[in-house]
Amino acid sequence: MKARAPKIAPEARAKELQNDLGLKYPDFTVCCTGAKIYIRGAFPVLHEGTVLDRYQIEIEWSDSDTEVPLLRETGGRIPWIADRHMSRGGMACLFVPEEWLLRSREEKTVIHYLDGPVRNYFLWQSLYDRGESPPWKDRAHFAPGLLEAYGEMVGMEGESTVRCCLEYLSKEQIKGHWPCPCGSGKRTRDCHLTHMRELQSKIPRYIALSALARLTNPTIK
Amino acid sequence: MNTNEYLQSVLKSQDLPDDSDELKELQSHRKDVEALLRKHFAASSPTIRYGGSRAKGTLIREYYDLDAICYFPHDDTAAGETLEDIYNNVEKALSTTYYVDRKTSALRLKSRDPQSFAKDFHIDVVPGRFTDDKKADAFIYQNAGDKKRLKTNFDVHIEHVNESGVLDAIRLLKLWKVRRGLRVKQFAFELLIIHLLAKKKNSPLSDQLQHVWTELRDRSEAPAVADPANPTGNDLTSLLKAEWASLSTTAGSTLATIQSSGWESVFGKVEEKTSAQKVAVLRSAAAAVTVPTRPWLPEV
Is B295's CB within 8 Å of A93's CB? Predict the structure, then answer.
């Protein structure tokens, strides 16, 4: 079953978000346009109470279990180029979406989003901007980056293995007589069944389906 | 440090000195833009002049721009028959070198270089046509709203803001607006501040700011603000009205913040760091990240 976020009117949700942001990020303004909720303002890259840099941003917020919040850098500081992980249209690519979707709802709050992926992304950008080497490795672009991330998620490597794993995880049941995704030639029951059952408890079907769809079309939201 | 000294230090931190890299880059792009327009519209002899926040004295480091007006003689049609044609033709000319973002009346210039694609040059080109031979008033095209053209006067605007006597308040309120992502048009916002502070020019800066925020919070709707370039013709109320709710709510929460946590919670600490110091702190901040999220790219 696909998990569902509780339904709440956009205006009420915007107020909740404004309150959540209030203590740590008081500069942000939350507003609604139709059903969409936008968070706008200058994001402060904070470290030990000091603002190291600021970026003008707009976040199209999503509480959905299947869509990630979308971040745009609106100040025009970061060029829209692959090396800066900025797609055409000014959309920042913070992560492989399923890495965020896989988090529990308690770890997907707006504060988690800003303190984690957003801060990390702009720390990375601020160092890059000053001619410094990136503080950690970025993902490969396009499908190879997806395979890296999904490989880490399922604890296996290789395109066919990762794909097969995701396909099994997208089914209601994993049958023991299916060929093992690791490519050993054995049946799953004689090889990685315990591992696959553990994965089933961690990776919901809708995440596996979302990952498979993205491998076919990396540009889907 | 008292409140007004603190606010002055915030203002100082927002200065862009003449020899700053940002201003040098701006000057260099400005020359290129002018050369391009003069070459492309040689037959029309456009008047190209510069305004924007630097000319008005309202520049802040966190959000600055240069307005380059490109006005054609009132009887010229070579650059375009209509104001819309002029706007489109100037865009076309600029697009040969720049990535151009169409704004309501201006054309925002960004990089077209594949290595820095869409990086903002902080230059707005405003195409238009003078209303007569005096070359003072001009009509500019508007691609949004009810009216397709707007009568304006470049010098009147600069002078009105420059001589308002409330430049410090305008700069700080602009910083407040930018940091909070409020989308009200800067031109209308400046005129609103001047209007609200008409009788407060000699008040301390902190009083001026609190007065503006109180007015924004307490007024149920935007006041009528006249455009000095066209006092009876341009209705700025609609520009302010669209954002009034956000302005009002944000002003209210800012006043509450000052009350509960003081001024530093509004504009932050003022810290001067050298470039090398900044890099060192950024490095140590990055080293302290326990779960680095790795950026990815779905498409070119």
Answer: yes
Best mutation target, B26, B174, B273, B294, to test chain A (most A CBs within 10 A): B294
Contact: B181, A28; criterion CB under 8 Å: yes
Could you report the per-residue pLDDT of A78-137, keeping only the tens digit for each?
Answer: 999 999 999 988 899 999 999 999 999 999 999 999 999 999 999 999 999 999 999 999
Is the per-residue pLDDT at A4 higher than 60?
no
The sign of the torsion formed by the CA atoms of A106, A110, A115, A116 equals positive
B268·A44 Cβ contact <8 A: yes
Partners of B62 on chain A (C-beta within 8 Å) are: 42, 54
Residue A173 has pLDDT above 90, yes or no: yes
Q: How many domains does chain A have?
A: 2
Question: Distance of CA B245 to CAs A32, A56, A61, Å?
Answer: 12, 21, 20
B282, B293, B295 ranked by CB distance to A116: nearest: B293
Residue B273 in any domain: the answer is no
CATH number at residue B24: 3.30.460.90
State the ipTM, two decimals.
Answer: 0.92
Has residue A5 got a pLDDT over 70?
no
Average pLDDT score over chain A: 94
The answer to whether the predicted template modeling score (pTM) of the entire model surpasses 0.90 is yes
Mind listing the pLDDT tens digit for each residue in B152-197?
999 999 999 999 999 999 999 999 999 999 999 999 999 999 999 9
Closest CA to B150 of B54, B50, B242, B239: B239
Q: Give me the residue label for tokens 């008040």.
A: B203
Q: Which of A199, A117, A192, A94 is nearest to A153 (CA)?
A: A199
Interacting residues of A111 by C-beta distance below 8 A, sequence separation 6+: A20, A21, A24, A25
Residue A171: the pLDDT is 97
Overall domain count for chain B: 2
A1 in a structural domain: no
Closest Cα in chain A, distance from residue B20 (Å): 16
- Contact list in B for residue A117 (CB cut-off 8 A) is 293
Question: Which residues form the domain of B182?
Answer: 164-268
Tell me if B283 and A132 make a contact (CB, 8 A cut-off): yes
CB contact under 8 A, B282 and A88: no
**Within 10 Å of residue A19's Cβ, how many Cβ atoms?**
10
